[in-house]
Predict the structure.
Amino acid sequence: MAVSFKTASGRSWCDGRVMTPDFDAAAQFVAGNARVLDRRRFERLFLSGGAEPVRDAVTAYRNADGGFGHGLEPDCRAPDSQPAAVEMALRVMNECDAWDVSVVRGACDWLASVAPAEGGAAFVEPTVSRGPHAPWWVPEEGHPASLIATGMITGTLHARGFSHPWLDRACDVMWARLGAVGEPSAYGMFGVLAFLQHVPDRDRAREVFARVGPLLLECRLVELDPEAPGEVHGPLDFAPEPSSMARSLFEDKVIDQHLSHLAARQGDDGGWTFNWPAWSAAAERDWRGAITVDVLRTLRANGR
């Protein structure tokens, strides 16, 4: 049975047709709407731009303590450093091959200075109260390590072969949590998968993935219907590239359907949007620019 998809403008498409994005329209959207950081990302990833401008755009959000804030993660506009902003800074420098060892070391030093007692990184530091932020940015009682923050940061550091005392303790946290994980959240699984994708002990990573990976389906954390409404997470959120560990959990036809749907979701203005609440106009604009670049990366990685 053919599955029809609708674009943001209401146009319908059939899954029998391979959808590709309008790249020129996306480029115009990024140029006219995205923040400097994401314009530099776009130039670097798609127009042979330089790495140094990306690094400079990232470090514009850097604090004197070595961490990052000031809205780098669009849902937190507070100036103080936050683990989620560090995660985004490291991820951008990695994806754009704009890695700066001194900047990364400073960020890890900051993470070590605010680490939970067990190690790793909290989801939100209490300093979030000093500026505007999304209502779901609430520090957890007891300041525990967060699966998503700890896992995603460690994943990027391992992808780069970086070493730091904070990373050693954070890995211990992740292995311990993975030994007891039962019903993780969807967001927690982002951290789990990022960690397992890049941690050096590949045999152990594959063994753990064989146990925790299927939880995506068993706990209904992934939505297989590409047209499902609301704040849902599809296969491409957990397995954006063919080399993603979680890709083995999904049939090829499911991935193809979600790729076609993703391409068809390009708006009339050339950009893509997101399915979680937009709590401020500034955050919405910043997220759309960042996500448009992310979507183009995913589509290109999958031959679209």
Summary: Strands lie at 4-6, 12-14. Residues 20 and 28 are 16 Å apart (CA to CA). The first strand starts at residue 4 and ends at 6.
